[in-house]
Amino acid sequence: MTTLAFKQTWTALKGKLIFDFTLYRSEEHGASIVKICFEGDGEHRVHEVLLPSGPTRHLDFQFNFTPDGVVYVKGTLRHESNHHGDADAHVTVFADIVYGHQGRHDERHFEGFMIAINCHEASSASEPIAPPLPVNAPDSARCLAVGAEALRLRFISYVPAIVDPSAPPGNTLYQALLAARPAGRESMEALALRYIQGESPCAPAFLGLPGELPALWHSYVDVAMAAQQLCSQPKLLQQRIFTLLHAETDEQVAALLASPACADATAAAWQSYFALIITPGHDNALLSTLPHFLGAIHLLNHLYLFAPSSPPSAATLTALAHASIVLPAAIFPLPAAKDAASGD
Is the pTM of this model over 0.70? Predict the structure, then answer.
């Protein structure tokens, strides 16, 4: 019988924090699950989380008796059984989590795909065998592809500026991190810290405290929050957007988004976000604010700049309002530390 389950493991904290996934190609063949444990935990505690396809699962737990002290994990996981990539359908788990040792100020943040499995690849013989299928059912699960438009709605990606090869090298933090990557993780971390401290020539400059941001920034953050609350009510959401941005027409919102001020603010948000991801714990308030700002820009661009042919549905607004940031693969994850046996 064809095996329909896949087992893969994702680890952090030098391989001690373990996410052990059992994922099925389709929910009709079994319930996907992740078991989370910490190597050396005195209680041998294992947290099991069911992963239905689609809904976000929230994590918030800790391991109290480990050789390294109390270890905590919190954030979200989202399992998708029909993610499309590389021309094939994939089973994926998207994570947005923080973890670390309580009291050590070493919090790490991971945002991206923990697991991505090609649906058409065969599972190993040692993996669980799927239960018998109904009569006349196919002997392998069918994974439906998600179109490019759906992916564009649900994920927020950084798009580097197109650079003229004849022009002088750019000086954004993103470009500096790319150049520093061959030197290793420590070099990239030092570069991000200098940027935060204002000691780097990279531009735009680091943003600073949330309370010091221009009022327009807070309006965008409020738009993101309103979108999550009102995504099932398109007309009411549009009215709220107009109120928050002091606009009366779609054209006025589009002009605001196309303005140099908005472009500069978005560029600064991305560079500051990269720096804070690399230096966890430096400014958690700003780190929690930036995704809302970038999420608002993502939503507003789709609604007012990309000119959809018809009014957005509640499903479209829901996807936009809850879109996840995908960190650029050219930089993240950072290279492993020189003294680390595995990535963390």
Answer: no
Q: Are strands 5-12 and 17-24 parallel, antiparallel or unpaired?
A: antiparallel
What residue ranges of the chain have pLDDT lower than 50? 1-3, 83-87, 122-146, 164, 167, 340-344
Tell me the DSSP string of 63-86: E-S-TT--EEEEEEEEEEEEEEET
pLDDT at 196 (0 to 100): 93
Q: Look at residue 121 in the predicted model and tell me its pLDDT.
A: 53
- Total residue count of the chain as it appears in this document: 344
CA distances from residue 30 to 5, 120, 307 in whole angstroms, order as listed: 8, 17, 41
Residue at token pair 């027409």: 249
- Give the whole-angstrom CA distance, residue 215 versus residue 222: 11
User: Which pLDDT belongs to residue 3?
Assistant: 43
Residue 303 buriedness (CB in 10 A; 0-12 / 13-18 / 19+): buried
Is residue 72 within 8 A of residue 64, CB to CB? The reply is no
Instruction: Show the tokens assigned to 53.
Output: 């396809």
Tell me the residue type at 337: A
H or E segment and range at residue 285: helix 284-300
CB 262 within 8 A of CB 296: no
